[in-house]
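Objective 1.3, modelling of assemblies. Example input:
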Amino acid sequence: MIEVNNLTKRFGSVTAVDAVTFDAKHGQVTGFLGPNGAGKTTTMRMLTGFMPPTAGQAIVAGFDVFEHSFEVRKRVGYLPESVPLYRDMTVRGYLMYLGEIRGLTHLRDRADAALARVNLQDRADSRIRTLSKGMRQRVGLAQALMHDPEVLILDEPTIGLDPLQVLELRDLVRELGKTHTLLFSTHILSEAEQVCDSVVIINRGTIVAQGAPADLRSDLERGGRVLVRVNAPPEEARAALAALPDAKSVEVERDTLLVTPRSPEVDPRPDIARLVVERGWDLIELRPLAVNLEEIFLEVTQQNGAPAAAAVESEETHA
Amino acid sequence: MRSVFAVFKRELWLYFRSPIAYAIAFAILFFLGLLFNGYIAQANQRFPADSTYIPSLLTFLMFLIAPLLTMRLIAEETREGTLEVLMTLPMSEGQMIVGKFLAAWGYYTVLLLLTVVFHLLMVLVGIPDLGAAFGAYFGAWLYGGAVLAVTMIWSAVTEDQIVAAFLGAATVLVLYLAEIAAIWIAANQSTAGAADFIRELGLQAHYGPTLAQGVIRAEDIAYFILMIVGSLFITTRIVETRRWRA
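Predicted structure (tokens):
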């Protein structure tokens, strides 16, 4: 269980994370989604006790991360974004070293069990420097799993992996999510949609939307923009659609038209369908624009008046 | 305590696997051997060989050895990002730093024990003063600990190992040369009082005239221990604040 309440982190005059509030439930995968530099890593570093917050509160596995940092650290497995490892150690040696610092017993058995979990038993005696990127990622994950933590925090675990490895890792994340509180960050939207039970979207340090991927989608289906593709002269179609009572504006993008409804409560789709039929156009497509997280994300970040791309400016705060 | 021991074990093991540590050990033993050879030859039948010759030389050379031994300790973890993993384990900065320091001191202790060979040679050819030798070796051990702790501060300040080594060497030299600065200052009547103060701050005042002569004084032991504890405290604070700001 992770409960985050108005968590804020400032670096000098830059606010990297601004009053973020969300929670992650046990037995679920919670996706932490946002463009690069949105504040994902900073938030995770605060949750793992690596960095103290400037303001606000976070409860992880029942303990306040600031007041009882060690209690939290004992119960959290953390995979940092860059997967830092000691390259001169063997895989098993590395796990046993961190396990010993944690004060665990039966180090060898635990290390081997964690390696079996990530399917890396056969490389237990290899030096870490000889491993591929995907294997290193799994060593990092084994490290996070070794002490049977209640909470797993994985910072962009699929970054830099090949497609097959990404699929394997997603399966593992989904499986681990059933028995842990799993918070997992990504900037790949389709990934969050596939893996997560619940999604928190963060942009420029603030949360812009959260909920189950399906809920987010249905929220946006009502009141969101509608995509229309018809076989008709674009200018004529645009004018006709703009004349509908529920339409606020219509944009043309090549052969598609985007209809923005007058208010979030109205659904212009029935009217559009009727219009198309009356005019005798061929209807090719009629759907809410936001059908996957990619589009939801763009919609949400635009509604907030802060285009996603602009957030890249604050990228330095991660360094 | 277990985490301190775990860090100590790994770091000590790393010294015995590190080419730099072997290069240092080789250079020191070779250099000391050369000087020792010349010294013994010179002393032959002319004056009694001083059993504190080797440990005193070693303390002087520490301004070169210590930075090379400690430059890696924290700078490397910061640069590689492994500090982020370590500092999300249930282990405090202080525990990590004490473990690392003890490993450096442990390696230095091995180095110091190897130089006892020269003393044994002296025992073969003459009758050295055992009391003075004990004081000098014990003093060199404390002296080494203090210097290692001081140079380790720089490894926390910068992630560049070379910079850490240079700054460490400079700091130890300043502490070493406090003795000479004090002599200059003492030459002037009006500042004679300050001279003693500056002299006492330096490393040599607590080693050369006392421990190296076999005089074991509580104040000298306290000085070295305070240097160690103080430096480790500063290092801990630096790592903490870097993390808070990171």
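Chain A touches chain B through 25 residues (CB under 8 Å).
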